[in-house]
Amino acid sequence: QVQLQESGPGLVKPSQTLSLTCTVSGGSITTNRYYLNWFRQPPGKGLEWIAYIGYSASTYVSPSLKSRTSFSKDTSKNQFTLQLSSVTPEDTAVYYCARFDGSLPTFDYWGQGTQITVSS
C-alpha cells in the first residue's frame, strides 16, 4: 500500500520561506509513469493545484506561484520537497501531496495534508 506523508513547520512568519516535504512509502514514484503533485486548500476555499515534479525532474508550476516555488528531491529516501518563498498570510492553507499515475490516468494516492499558517 502506497502512503504519502506531508511534513512542514506548521507556523511560518511572513516573508520567510516555507519548506514542505512529501515522503512516499510502500511503493514507487520514481518512474516515468508517476508524477508527484502538490495542492493546497486555503480556509473556506477550494483545492488549488500548485505544481508537479516528474521522474526526470521535469516540473510544472502554477503560473501564479512559479516565481516563488522551487523543488528538491532525495530519491534514496523517496522524499520530495517544495519550497515557497516570501510567504504571506494568503499562503495559509492545508497542503497536500498526491501521486498521479499517468497510465490510469488519475490521482491514485493522497497524503492526509499538513496545516500551514502564515502569521507574525
Helix amount, in percent? under 10%
H/E order of the elements? EEEEEEEEEEE
Strand residue content: over 45%
User: What is the mean predicted local confidence, pLDDT?
Assistant: 93
Radius of gyration, taken over Cα atoms and rounded to an integer in Å: 14 Å
Counting copies of identical and different chains, the oligomeric state is single chain
Number of helices: 0
Flag low-confidence runs: none
* Straight-line distance between termini: 39 Å
Total beta-strand segments: 11
Based on Cα principal axes, name the global outline: globular
Largest sheet: 7 strands, mixed
Structural class assignment: mainly beta
List the topology elements.
Elements: E1 3-7, E2 11-12, E3 18-25, E4 34-41, E5 48-54, E6 59-61, E7 69-74, E8 79-84, E9 93-101, E10 106-110, E11 114-118
Parallel strand pairs: 2-11
Antiparallel strand pairs: 1-3, 3-8, 4-5, 4-9, 5-6, 7-8, 9-10, 9-11
